[in-house]
Amino acid sequence: MPNSNYNKGRAFEYRVKHYYERAGFFCARTAGSHSPADLIAWREVPTSHGVDVVLIQCKRGKKKSYAAAKDELRKIPGPNWWRRVLWESEGRKTYMHDLAGDWREEVDLHGQK
């Protein structure tokens, strides 16, 4: 029987994945890789580098693990224009924390289809 926490975490990752896909991104899960990023999202944009890349970590419930997750995301090698975003799920509230701009915003993922 699958682990309940794993299933809840995976469901949260899929809600975040669908959020980015609806925004026009291609999005891939890194399931089983034990990578600091649970999801990688990208889309073409009219900029000098031509692509918007977002490295995403999804965390549920344990606030004490958020700082470590942020540090791990920041350590991923890549150009400084890649965005690193931590998604936090606390009960029915979900927050998107952009590490580059150091801002946090509540996002409703529960009402999405």
What do these coordinates show?
- By secondary structure, the protein is of the alpha+beta class.
- The protein has one domain (4-107): Trna Endonuclease, Chain: A, domain 1.
- The protein has helices spanning 4-22, 64-75; strands at 26-29, 39-44, 51-60, 83-90, 93-98, 103-107.
- The chain has a 6-stranded mixed sheet, sandwiched between helices.
- The longest helix has 19 residues, at 4-22.
- The mean pLDDT is 87.
How are the SSEs placed, and which strands pair?
Elements: H1 4-22, E1 26-29, E2 39-44, E3 51-60, H2 64-75, E4 83-90, E5 93-98, E6 103-107
Parallel strand pairs: 3-4
Antiparallel strand pairs: 1-2, 2-3, 4-5, 5-6
> Largest sheet at a glance?
6 strands, mixed
Q: How many domain modules?
A: 1
Give the class from helix and strand content and strand pairing.
Answer: alpha+beta
CATH class category label: Alpha Beta
User: Looking across the biggest beta sheet, what order are the strands in?
Assistant: 1-2-3-4-5-6
Q: So how many helices?
A: 2
| Average pLDDT over all residues | 87
Low-confidence sequence ranges: none
- Terminal CA distance: 27 Å
What is the name of the CATH topology? Trna Endonuclease, Chain: A, domain 1
Helix content: 25-40%
How large is the radius of gyration?
14 Å
- What is the overall shape? globular
Q: What order do the helices and strands follow?
A: HEEEHEEE
Give the DSSP E fraction (strand runs of 2 or more residues): 25-35%
**CATH architecture grouping:** 3-Layer(aba) Sandwich
Tally of extended strands? 6
